[in-house]
Design brief:
alpha/beta, Rossmann fold, six-stranded mixed sheet, 264 residues, 34% helix, 11 helices, four-stranded antiparallel sheet
Amino acid sequence: MLSVENIDVVYHHTVQALRGLSLEVQKGKIIALLGSNGAGKTTTLKTASNLVQLENGHVREGRVMFKGQNIARLSADALVHKGLFHIREGRRIFSELTVEDNLMAASYALKGRASRPDYDKVYTFFPRLKERRKQVAGYLSGGEQQMLAFGRAMVAQPEMILMDEPSLGLAPKIITEIFDTIRRLNTEDGITILLVEQNAHLAFSIADYSYIMESGQIVMEGSSDKLRNDPDVRSFYLGVAEEGDERESFRDVKHYKRRKRWLS
């Protein structure tokens, strides 16, 4: 469904954020993209949704294909109409509008389609939003705002959702609800998902396949079960040291050693 092919992305014509990055997202799958801060995960999502162009970013090499079409000439809103929805980090709701108005705004993505907005479905997924549908969105809790961000995506009826750090800043109980929702969107609605997430435990628990990034490149990939059991991933991302290994974080490991092991 989504194919990122050997792309280089540069900001302001000088700062290179992605270097020869390639990944594949198959229809109906949940794919996780993991990596430390600054690895290029968010830039990857913005490139896939063509938002990178709005931030003085430029795809210098390679291409991004969505449903077999090169997206280079498509605007971000045109991609939404084609079924690609991006839930950005920090929720990015309309804080001065009500919950109901936020959902109505998302129905713009259905323009030109036969479908009609299904607000009841959103309220069935998130009963708390129904209770607060007349409330100004800026006064919702962080968890409720994340639910609203998901609800807007559901109204747009996408075929694929890009999700950037959905667990960021949320309480553990709310995170569990959010990830249950991600599973339901995939299993019940068949929505394809590319998930950027700092919490590797959570990402591996729902993803079919995972990629790990460093310095704008993919350094590891494989099924989530395979990566979850990899010694380096367990040490650097899951906080589980190998037997006889006293490392507690990858900050204690020299960068060149880690790169040598991952790229060998």
